[in-house]
Amino acid sequence: MKLEVSVWDFIGLKLDVYKVLTDYKKVTMETWSASLTDDDNYDTVFAVKTINPTVKKVVVSNDGDYLNRLTLEEVKNKSTIYVEMDIDNGYALHYCQLKSDIGSFVFRGLNEKREIVQATY
């Protein structure tokens, strides 16, 4: 599946909450945005752009481990938000509706062996 939208197309949208993270050393950019809906949910978009060829998947979570000491299984168990995205042509994009827990997201890049090769928060 090819993504027909650029990660950065979302920056121009009306956003209630958003954050853009850039790690120039690892050449990865992550962003998320959340907009409160009429039914008190948050329309949420996570997006990643990378030219790091070792990153095959990205995990977004809210486990709070900014020092990257946890295994993926521990991250999943500690998180109320856990999203796994495949990288396609350097991009990954995910939309979901969340009830709460907006913010404090950690983005982890995984290689083909599912090892964490980089993390950004």
From TrEMBL:
Name the UniProt record assigns to this protein: Uncharacterized protein
Top-level division of the source organism's lineage: Bacteria
Organism: Heliobacterium mobile
